[in-house]
Amino acid sequence: MTDYTNQFMPNSLTEIRVEVNQRHLIDKMLARYAAEFVVFRELMQNADDAKTTAVEIIFEGTTDGTLTKTIFKNNGFHFREQDWNRLKKIAEGNPDEQKIGAFGVGFYSLFSVCENPKVSSGGLMMEFFWRGDQLYARHGPDGSKDLKWTTFEMEMRTPREFPNLDSFSRFLATSLGFTSNLCEVSVYFNKDRVIHITKKIGQPQSIEIRSDINCESPKGIFKLLSADLCNVQIDARKVCIPPGTLSSRYCSEEVASVYLKIASAKLRVRVSDSICDEMERLTKKKPPNQTKIHILLPNNNDFNMDKSSNIFKDLLPFPEQGRIFIGFQTHQTTGCSVHIAAHVIPTVERESIDLVDPTLSIYNSEMLCSAGILSRLLYENEMYQISKLYQNAICTQKSTSECEKRAAHVLEHFTFRSSTPNYKVAEIIEPQFFNCCSSKVSILSTNGVKPINMIRIPDPEMAAFIKTISVVPEIVLERCILFFNRAETVLNLIEKASINDAFEELKSRTLNQDEMEAAMKWWISYSIKQNITKLGHGRFAQHAVVRNGINALPLKNVHYFLNIKTIPPESDIPLDVLPYSVSKTFKLNELKKYFGNWVELPLGVWAKYILKKYKIENDSVFSEKFIEILSQGYKSMDSESRTTICKLLSQKSCIPTQFGLRKPVDTYFPEVILFEDLPRFTMNNISEDFFLGMGVHKHVELQLVFSRMVNNENLDHMKLVEYFSSISKDLKNNDIEKLKTTAIWIEENADINNPKTKIRRYLAKDLYAPFPINRWLRLPVIYWKGNWIGNSDEVNFMSTLGLQEYPSLQVILRLASPPTAPQIREKALNYFIDNLRDKYREYKANLIEDEFLPCDNTGIYARPSDCFSNPDCIFMGFNALRKDLRIRAEELGVRQHPNGKQLLKRLSNNLPNSIDEAKICFEYLSSRRGDFDHEDWKVLRSLNFIPVQDKSIFGKISHYSPKECFLNCSNESYANILPNVDFGEVANIFLENCGVKREPSSLDLAEYLVSSSKDCWNRMDEDSYVSILGTIAFNYAAIFKERPTLYEEMKQSPILLGRKKYGNSERYELACANEIFINDNDRYRDMFNALTCQFKDQKMEEFYRILGCQLLSSNVKTTHEPEGTPISSQVSIEVLEKIQERVPWYYSSIPNDNIKYEVTWIENLNVMEVDRIYVTYELTTNNMINREEVSSSISEKENTYTLYISRTTADFTDIASDLIQHIHKQPQRQHSLTLYTYLTSSIDVLQRLGYPIEKTKKASKGRPPESRSPTTEPPNKVRKIDPSAPIPSNELQNLLRGGIMSCRSNFQDSVYSPPTVNSVPESHCDTVPETSLKYVKTEGEIELHVATNMDPSSILSASMTRALKSFIRVLVNIAEIFEIPRNKINIFYDLDSTTVAFNRDRTLFFNLKYYIEFKEPFNKAMISWFMTFCHELAHNFVHHHSAEHEFFLQSYARHYIPKLFEKLGGGNSGTIVAGQSVTPSRTVYNPYA
After folding, report:
1. Helices 38-49 and 165-175, axial angle in degrees (round to 10)
2. Global model pTM greater than 0.70
3. Which tens digits make up the pLDDT trace of 56-65?
């Protein structure tokens, strides 16, 4: 750059000194020094650098706290000459690399509070003052004899408040934390001392640098050479001044002290030359060869400090983070709870570390790494001291809690978090702290100080039995949980005590029973948490050994545990049973589940052990106790053990009886009192099954009873009842069965007193209890002596044998059903209903086959599933429950209505055969819509069940499916061809659910035409068919999307209308798409009489093309045969010039999407005059040929076009028609008319008509590119019209007629006309409001619409009929005046609209609301709505209301008003006047011409 300057810059240029606005410069620098007490921070830093030991700060002011002057004094060395020189230089920092200052702006912080600071030192002074925006200084002797102090005097620029003593004292105490020399600070207000802080520093002690610690920073810039540790005590006194005064008299004094440890390290500095040079450039000083770094750690005895004092709040950061000190405290935190002081390079404002500048970032990062190393040294030194204290406590058997608290104190101060505001600081220090040493960081464990990876985070559940594994003490873990969470999950330094640790503990020693209990509880908890499988449960027992008395019992030898509910704990037990003292606190299922193969000590095993060890026959007391234990636990034995035990005991005399110990087979239960000589056991609370299993008898066998009775003749069945009922619980099943199958019971009507009478005996199950109801129902009742007492033993026993208290469900229903006698039948029914809930709960209505329920029809009985409680079901042939029983229908299981399947089946089998019958049926089914499921509705949609009156044959009813029918179609055309039904509002709801639609959709219409187009054409007028076709055309995209296959069907089906001449008339024909041409050339149509699509609506033509109709012109091949020699005459030249001038104007007015050839083809056009011109036309699809003479024709050869014109007959009408064939893809009649206007009208006329010629007049040949943008406006849009300028009558007539012909029909079900606002003030309708409509129906070819927020029936109501017909008469009359087809007129009814009529894209809409409101007589209505027609037709040319729109409105009115008067005057049969009917003619208008 220097060479470039020397080479190219002239030597004559004048050098100009750059001026600096010093006031602004200082103000902007101080703006970055916005920290609180920044002035005192800088002055105290400078004082410490000057070896100051004491500082005094004196505030002078009034007693209300207003300061006028501040004096700062220090007793450091005096200013030297270089200091005075540097003081007056901005941004020239202290060159001493051991000093903090780097930017030379610290002193200038004084200007933040004063204008003219004054400095005195060593008898000299320097005072600063301003001249304008430039700073000056005076320097010289100050005349003072005080040589001790260096003084800074600051007269306040404006009065300031005295600083908050709490905040200021905290700032001063924190500032003394890392000062090297400054040890005392005194603060005065006037002459009163309000703050006094002193610092005492103990003798430094060297910190050993272990060999496993790497003392060098990652890039080698710093290396830690030595480190020492000293204790520091800071004492503070602060006057507590009450609010409102600053007088220190009679004020209390706050006294506080704090004890700290400061670790200091000496660092060797070695930087590369490039870094050194860059740092010197940035900081104006070279990096030092050596530097120091300090870390402040509060002593653990800081609890001695007065907790109410906040003076040392910032000096003791925990639990918050410490700060980085660069001389004094900055905003940057360290990431842990210790302060770090280092000569890092700060940002300019001295509040953050510069980690942005690439060079300074390297230097500062390396310095922070050294801070991490010193932090580790300090931490490990603390752990070493704690280790010695811990060993001493162990040796002297003292508590280690103080060691644990001290260890927690150190560890919580070295727990790292994210630092702020720069997170990178912690991310630099923390890794160096952990990684600078090859050994893992040490922490205190339950076994002393160890590397952290040899210690485990304790599991509380293991604590009771873990003794040899080193874990983190509870106090340390609780206070340092953040550290251990991070050490475990992020740093991977420590693990939680694991199962392997537990197993190591178990393998290392024998546990006492309490420890084993705790270990087992841990194992259960661990198994649950870890979802240990059954295969792993035995692992615990493989390692654990428990002390059992004097013996050690390996748990792997244990097979059983004791259940004291089965075996008393004091019982003698086998050796492989877990001691109860260990197992007693565990649930039995825990012992079974989590300890491998342990099981509860089986009673059988224990019994065998006892029987093998003891002789129970010799000791009745022991035998009774043993039998009692076995009896209580008998049910818990397995079947094999039961059998074995019972077999062993059955042969022993072990059962105590009134006759002594007896064998079980010789003993009876105490209840057997029938005979006194039988031995009975005397024990209580025994297991019957156990005693029965041993062979003890519970009752006397029946054979024995019968053998001891006197004789069979005296057998009294009542005595048997009494005996057997007393032992009924003890009778065996075969005994009960024998009694059930023996006929020994007598009916109550038996003649038992007559010995000659043979008494019939019954089985118990064939008799009934002696109740009146059983007698009323004529059922056999048992003979019974005495009263029948319910629930007595005798009654219960007889019930066991089968005696019936009341008739069963089957019996009572049989009695209630025919052919039972009516009296019994009714009683049976009433009894059944009354006792249904109590005695017949097993009653399931759907399973009943008995026809016992009386129905409404006399003599008819039905099953519950075959009748219903709602009598409406009778309409469909179902049975209805008798009226008096309907209240109980739910209890009887009688449904209110048949279900959906039943209804569907009945409907399918019994179709309604009349409209009235169907109405009743459908109304009922409508009420049951909720009974049908998805499948039912699916069947109904396809079921032909809807009766429809055949319109061709009176009285003939045909049935259709719902998908084929429609509800009361509002469109009369649809109603004539589609099944149209209306069974009333309620019935119609059911039909709609079945799938009957309100109106046929476009898809329905399309499918109908495909299947029945010829039938449809024969049954409806052509306008209605055209309307259907138009609806399909407008929605064909949605139709093909919903049913893609329909596209091919429609292409192949004769559904389209083509028009063709027959004689003197034209008529429509049905044909397939490939048989119809789209008429794009009337000349060809007339020439070949081709079947063509005559519809000019864009949607209709598009629909025809989609189905495969081709353009007529594309199928006609022309051959030009000019006769005579072609010459270029004056006429041909003029024609060519006219074409080349006017055709580009025409191009500028048409949209791009209808251009066949670009305008440039005109440049290649020649015009030649010939005698005659013949053209041969061949319709290639039909091989039809026609040859005729024409006045002009265009031939094309190799991109050259020749227009031949006849000398005698040529005119611009034919020329325009020929040109249009080459201009438009789809030429139309109005195109030729418009081009003819361009070619024949004068420029003035064209300009007055508003044709776009201005741009093209100035342009060269070719179409202006800016006019090629598509437009939605009509092709004849008028841009500017001068109403006063005359227009030739024939030209204006053609324009007006073209506007009428451009009107369109509407095929949309919904119409939206957006609001528009016209700014032309003279317009009579400036604002056109928004209009949103929906289609209702077509009436006499005119579509009816209503507002979307109105009910469609509103326009069809009886009250509207007269007004609607009258309005239609008016509109049809006016439409005939303009020769507008009726299907291009639309009526809408919108009560909220202020629109009388609107023109939406050349479709006309008229509001019925205003016809009703105007209430005009017919003639007057004709005139007013005639003007409305003129207004809306004018919008075919001009969208907005303007002078041009008014021109066309008046033109229409003038041109057609004679026809209006002719209408109103009457006089011929074609005129319609008020009161006459309107008869639409099918031959007058082509609806889409």
Report:
1. 30
2. no
3. 999 999 888 8
